[in-house]
Amino acid sequence: MQVEVGAVLDGKITGLTNFGAFVELEGGITGMVHISEVAGTYVNDIKDHLVINQAVKVKVLSVGDDGKISLSIKKALELVQPERQQRARTTAPKRSGAGTWQGPKPSIPLESQTFEDMISKFKQVSEEKMTDIKHSNEAKHGGGYSRRGGKK
Fold first, then answer.
1. Residue 149, SS3?
2. Residue in 99, 23, 77 with CA at minimum distance from that of residue 54
3. Contact assessment for residue 69 and residue 9, using Cβ atoms and an 8 Å cutoff
4. How far apart are CA 18 and CA 84, in angstroms?
5. CA distance 37 to 70
6. Residue 83 to residues 76, 78, 88, 128, Cα–Cα distance (Å)
7. Which of 18, 135, 33 is nearest to 76 (CA)?
8. Residue 5: helix, strand or coil by DSSP?
């Protein structure tokens, strides 16, 4: 079997090392996936991501003159993931995560507010926040009294 750069193939993990994994392709050909090409995130221990005899999809990165085949699981997954993400975007509405601050809900719809109304509301919220920060800082620094007994 002739292996071409850029091809996405099915394989099976035959060996794991601390620097990568060996993958057997069709026809008994073996290639290697470097640890940096296993997942889209940092991989500290390859055994957390792969096991021997696991079926994987790999993309051929290069074929050396000496016959060494460099493979990537990460890049093979990137080709499959956009389709799934596209389907997810069209079927599920986007929701914000719990705990994400979205600001106060305006009592008047944004479209009917004037610029002056928006500035006035911004000033009010800003002053409230500054007051909260001042109170917090005073509490952290002993309530506004110096160490010598007098007022600061």
1. coil
2. 23
3. no
4. 31
5. 10
6. 13, 9, 9, 46
7. 33
8. coil
Token reading at 40: 């889209």
Strands (E), the chain: 8-17, 20-24, 30-34, 55-63, 69-72
3-state secondary structure of 147: coil
Give tens-digit pLDDT for 24-68: 998 889 999 999 999 888 888 999 899 999 999 999 999 988 889
Which tokens hold the place of 106? 């305006």
Residue with token string 């993400």: 85
DSSP label of 20: E
- Whether the pTM exceeds 0.70: the reply is no
